[in-house]
Amino acid sequence: MNKTIILTAVFALFLSCAATVQATATVVPLEELQPTREQRQATLIIIRVIDKHHYKHLQLNDDASNLIFDRYLEALDPNRSYFTARDIDRFSVYRDQLDNALLQAHLTPAFDIFRVYRQRVDERIAYALDLLERQFDFSLDEDYQFDRADAAWPVDRIALDELWRKRVKNDVLTLRLNGKTEKEIKKSLSQRYQGVKRRTQQLDSNDVFQTFINAYTLSLEPHTSYMSPRVSENFDISMRLSLEGIGAVLRNENEYTEVLSTVPGGPAALSGKVQTGDRIIGVGQGSDGEIQDVVGWRLQDVVDQIRGPKGTVVRLRLLTEDAGEGGPEKEVVLTRNEIKLEDQAAKKSIIEGLDSQGLVRIGVITIPAFYRDFKGQSDGDKDFRSTTRDVRILLQELQQEKVDGIVIDLRQNGGGSLTEATELTGLFIPSGPVVQVKDSSGEVEIEKDPDPETVYAGPLAVLVDRNSASASEIFAGAIQDYHRGIIIGEPTFGKGTVQTLVDLGRFVREGGDKLGRLRLTMAQFFRVNGGSTQFRGVVPDITYPLGSSTDKYGERELDNALPWAQIDAADYRPRGATPVGKYRENHEKRIKNDAGFKYLTEEGEYLRKLRDRSVVSLLEEKRKREWDEREVKRKEDKNRFRVAVGLPPVDEKSSASEDAEDDVLSKSESDLIDKILINEAARILSDYIGDQGHAAMVN
Predict the structure, then answer these.
(1) Lowest CB count within 10 Å: 260, 468, 564, 587, which one?
(2) Residue 239 confidence (pLDDT) above 60
């Protein structure tokens, strides 16, 4: 197979952004929604490739058919707002037949279900538009379940009408509480609902096929997916332009476009105003262009609105994660820019003069990504940039500056080059294996440190968080297994699988450009101790108690993710284990009354409760009271933190999103929180250094 290896979680997540369907410009007649010869041909090739090369060997039988059936319905109607229980009963004849249908490239069931889906969308949108012409009574004490992913299918059309009555009422109330006039509300929601109908009517045969085949691939695990020819072409364009824009990784979540992460060095990250978990509900072009409501849009359509030439302005209307469902909106202005290699390059700093740490100097090396200038390397440039080369220089400089220990900061590092993860580890160990890669045939290949030189052998800590993924997990896992340093922070993302892109056209003599590509999971990473980085990630030796549970984040959040596994350990020679119990106790004592950690813990707990909610009140007075109480409490918590760290409190009559000066202070506050986390890692490492020095004096 022609392999393009994908080793980074952020890249993989961006792929989900790029590999979403781009709609055709006109309405596709229902009678044209029929499978094609090329799609049947692609089906047979996909099944053969998966059967031979996929890491997980799943037998295509009745059990698999049930999984595919449920995932296809979930892909079409994730919030169970269009189909009724009667529709599902009607479709149930296909529940245990999809395995045979796929094996025979019989795609009629998928198209039959989709045609019904499109009819239901037309019916629901017509009803929603009719509801906008009516008056709602916001003095009634009733609730709306906005998250219906686990709810029962509405029994019949009457139940569906009631569901949509509450849905439209909630949409109206949300805009009403955000200060919109009745005219503005009607215009905005009319455009939103009509847009859902229009985009659904533009889905063509290739879109239906891709959705159905991906229901099959997702029954294997989350990272295997099919790209139709049109999407493959768009993916190639996206890869050429992927570093120009605002620098954000996005996904669809319950009709919203959600920010999964921001790219270090990109406009979104540099602004400090776009955070993981924020939902994009509107996009405007230029400084004064009308903001289009994008709720209910498909991901690629939203990406097309956000993406644009360097130097141009885009405005995002956000429903921030901390606002919750139906909360206050805020607008962010960003200037699109190219993310250069220098923006993601490793950087150093020195921490000294921390309380109770004496004269200890701690060097910090921040690594936003595992980068490598492959073009420069292939062109013969002997000085091509790479993570390992840059960090080697920084390590030498820090040692010349007489630091006592070094912290490697991998927070928000979504991965990158496997070669860089391996070679970087080699800077801290004499020699030996770094990571094991097991393929679908069960063969294990060991990636080893190619350089016997140890550039830095002194005290070391590695700081990670929930967004440290893939290559970051390989490095942190190896450092932990070799007992080479103390791992600090949050459990990491947990992506321990390897993907490759397979061009389906390679398997036919002609017409290959009409078949698309398959993104295939074909291997899994294992640490040198034999445990996988998959699912569990790397669990720190000392965990920051930040309040927000990591059980529902990263790979652990994804349906059908490959489980943690173990193979034989590699032949490696770890140092003697560092007893971290004492340093953990010191850490817990320090942060018990620390204003920064207390604020982060409270904020994390608050966000966790918001994520666990699935119901909101439609009683305007109650909704506004809850909103106001939430805002007051959060502002009190924030001001208590700001005062404790020397920042002025936010005016009680304003919010950070309403005042430009407060936005600047909010960025300073974010930087300060970041400093609190890195300083605590430095204190932990200083504890270890102090013990080492004391032991040396005693000896």
Answers:
(1) 564
(2) no
Catalytic site residue 495?
yes
Q: How far apart are CA 424 and CA 449, in angstroms?
A: 9
Burial of 20 (0-12, 13-18, 19+ CB in 10 A): buried
Report the 3 state secondary structure along 182-229: HHHHHHHHHHHHHHHHHHHHCCCHHHHHHHHHHHHHHCCCCCCEEECH
pLDDT tens-digit readout, 255-287: 889 998 888 888 998 888 998 889 999 999 999
DSSP bridge pairs for 317: 282, 331
Catalytic residue among 219, 232, 470, 617: 470
User: If pLDDT is split at 50, 70 and 90, which confidence band does 546 have?
Assistant: confident
Distances (CA, A) of 99 to 45, 63, 90, 94, 103: 15, 9, 18, 10, 6
Average pLDDT of the chain? 88
Geometric angle at alpha carbon 56, from 53 and 61, rounded to 5°: 100
Q: How far apart are the first and last CA of the chain?
A: 60
Q: Which of 481, 638, 657, 686 is catalytic?
A: 481
Catalytic residue among 169, 197, 495, 638: 495
Assess contact for 132 and 189: CB atoms under 8 A. Answer: yes
Q: Residue ranges of the domains in the chain?
A: 8-237, 244-338, 342-498+521-594+678-698
- Residue 481 among the catalytic residues: yes
- The CATH class, in words, for 342-498+521-594+678-698 is alpha beta
For domain 244-338, the CATH superfamily is PDZ domain (2.30.42.10)
Q: Enumerate residues 6+ apart whose C-beta is below 8 A from 693.
A: none
Type of residue numbered 463: L
Asked if residues 536 and 496 have their Cβ atoms less than 8 Å apart, the reply is: no
CA distance linking residue 553 with residue 548, whole number of Å: 10
pLDDT of residue 663: 44
Verdict on whether the full-model pTM lies above 0.70: yes
